[in-house]
Specification:
Helix content: under 10%
Strand order of the largest sheet: 1-2-3-5-6-7-8-9-10-11-12-13-14-15-16-17
Distance between the termini: 27 Å
Strand content: over 45%
Shape: globular
Structural class: mainly beta
Radius of gyration: 21 Å
Order of helices and strands: HEEEEEEHHEEEEEHEEEEEE
Oligomer: single chain
Largest sheet: 16 strands, antiparallel, barrel
Number of helices: 4
C-alpha cells in the first residue's frame, strides 16, 4: 500500500500473454546468477468529480511514470533473494489539482528470501501477503485502489504454502502468513521528502510484533473443471495505536472468497498464434470480502463484492468490472460506494502495450467520472 496505483490491466497484458510464452526470467545455466524483470508505464489519469459541498465540478489530472522492477540473485533454480521496487507517485493528487510528474518517489515493495520446491513455497523478509485476487485478476486501472483494504504489500514477516495434488481432487494449496507493518527505513519513500511509517501512525498490523496473520486455501486444476480457480481466506490484522480523529481501534478481520474461470474454446501456448488473433478466452471473476473494523477502526464494518469479465483475443484484452462497497451510513453519503470500469488493452508488440479505462465512481457521497491512459513496456534480463 506504499504505492498509489498498481495497474491490473497493464499487468494482465504483460503477464497474461507473457505467460503463454513461458517463464520470462533469464537463466544463464549456472549458479549463482542474477536476473531482472521490469515494467515501465507512462500513465495519464483524469477525473471529474461532483458531490456535496462542491461549488462546481472539479477536474483532476495526473501524468506520471510507474516503473516496477524486480531484481533476483538466484542460488539455484528454486532459491533466490528478490528485491522489488516501484517508482511512481506516493500519494494521489488533491481534488482539482493538475499535476505533471509530481510527488514521485521510490518504494521497496519486497526484499525477501524465496524458496520453491515441488510441494512447498517459503518467503521470509519484506513481502506481499497473498490474500484476495481482485486487485490482481480484475481488469482495469483503478479496481486495485478501490479494494486496497485487503491488499497488504510491504509487510515484514514470512509466508509458507504447501501444495497437494490428487487425481480426483486436483490441486489444493494451503498458506499461512505471519507479518507486521514495516516501520524500518525500508518503509519510507526514497528520492523525495517523506518519512517511514511509525508505530504512532496506528492502523492495521502496525504493532511492532509478528501478531497479524492470514490463512488461505487455493483450489484449482480440478479434473472435472480444470479451468476453475477458487480461493478462501481469513485475515486478522492487529490494531495499532488508536488515532484521535478516527476513534477507538480494534483488530481488522477480513474473510474473502473468490472464484475465477478460464474458458478457452481453442487453447494454445503459441504466443505468435495468439498475437495473430487465433486465441480467444473469456475469464469471469467474482470475489466477496467481509471486512470488520476496516483500517483497524472499531465499528467500521464494510463489505466488497467484485464481479468482472476479461476477454483475451489475439492482441486485445477487453474487461468490465464492478465493485460494490457497503460501509457505515454517513449523512449525505449514505452507505453505498461503487466503482464501474470498462477497459481495453492492445499489445503493440511482444513488450509494448497500450491500455485505456473509462469508469464511474461513488465514494463517500462524491461522484466522479474517470479516464485513464497507459503505455507500458515490459521485459526481463
Amino acid at each position: 500500500m506504499n504505492a498509489f496505483h498498481k495497474r491490473s490491466l497493464v499487468l494482465c497484458i504483460a503477464g497474461g500473454l507473457g505467460g503463454l510464452a513461458g517463464e520470462a526470467h533469464a537463466d544463464k545455466g549456472y549458479y549463482p546468477n542474477v536476473g531482472m524483470d521490469y515494467n515501465a508505464v507512462m500513465q495519464y489519469d483524469f477525473s471529474r468529480a461532483e458531490g456535496s459541498g462542491a461549488s462546481a465540478p472539479r477536474n483532476t489530472t495526473d501524468l506520471y511514470p510507474d516503473i516496477q522492477s524486480s531484481f533476483y540473485v538466484r542460488f539455484s533454480p528454486n532459491d533466490q533473494i528478490r528485491l522489488s521496487t516501484e517508482f511512481n507517485p506516493v500519494d494521489p493528487p488533491a481534488n482539482g489539482q493538475k499535476r505533471t510528474f509530481g510527488d514521485l518517489g521510490l518504494v521497496v515493495n519486497e526484499l525477501n528470501y524465496y524458496k520453491l520446491t515441488q510441494h512447498t513455497q517459503l518467503q521470509v523478509g519484506k513481502l506481499q501477503v497473498p490474500f484476495g485476487r481482485a486487485m490482481d485478476a480484475a481488469p482495469g486501472l483503478y479496481t486495485n485502489d478501490f479494494v486496497a483494504a485487503y491488499d497488504l504489500g510491504g509487510m515484514l514477516g514470512a509466508t509458507y504454502a504447501y501444495r497437494w495434488f490428487g487425481q480426483k481432487v486436483g490441486m489444493v494449496q494451503g498458506g499461512v502468513n505471519l507479518y507486521t507493518a514495516d516501520t524500518t527505513e525500508l518503509g519510507r519513500p526514497f528520492l523525495r521528502g517523506g518519512s517511514r511509517t511509525r508505530r504512532s501512525d496506528g492502523g492495521p498490523a502496525n504493532t511492532g510484533a509478528l501478531d497479524s496473520y492470514a490463512v488461505t486455501v487455493n483450489w484449482d486444476a480440478i479434473p472435472a473443471l480444470p479451468f476453475l480457480e477458487m480461493q478462501a481466506g481469513y485475515m486478522r490484522n492487529r490494531a495499532g495505536v488508536a488515532q484521535p480523529d478516527t476513534g477507538p481501534a480494534d483488530d481488522e478481520v477480513i474473510r474473502v472468497v473468490s472464484a475465477r474461470y478460464i474458458w478457452a474454446p481453442d487453447s494454445s501456448a503459441d504466443l505468435d498464434g495468439t498475437l495473430r488473433g487465433r486465441y480467444l478466452d473469456v475469464v469471469p471473476l467474482v470475489e466477496y470480502a467481509d471486512v470488520r473494523n476496516e483500517n483497524a477502526i472499531a465499528g467500521n464494518h464494510t463489505r466488497y463484492l467484485t464481479t468482472a469479465v476479461t476477454i483475451d483475443y489475439g492482441r486485445w484484452v477487453i474487461g468490465a468490472t464492478r465493485t460494490d462497497k457497503r460501509r457505515p451510513w454517513a449523512p449525505g453519503a449514505g452507505r453505498h460506494d461503487y466503482l464501474n470500469e470498462l477497459s481495453v488493452g492492445y499489445r503493440l508488440s511482444g513488450q509494448l502495450s497500450v491500455a485505456v479505462s473509462l469508469g464511474s465512481q461513488a465514494e463517500g457521497g462524491q461522484d466522479a467520472n474517470l479516464v485513464g491512459l497507459a503505455l507500458s513496456y515490459s521485459g526481463a534480463h
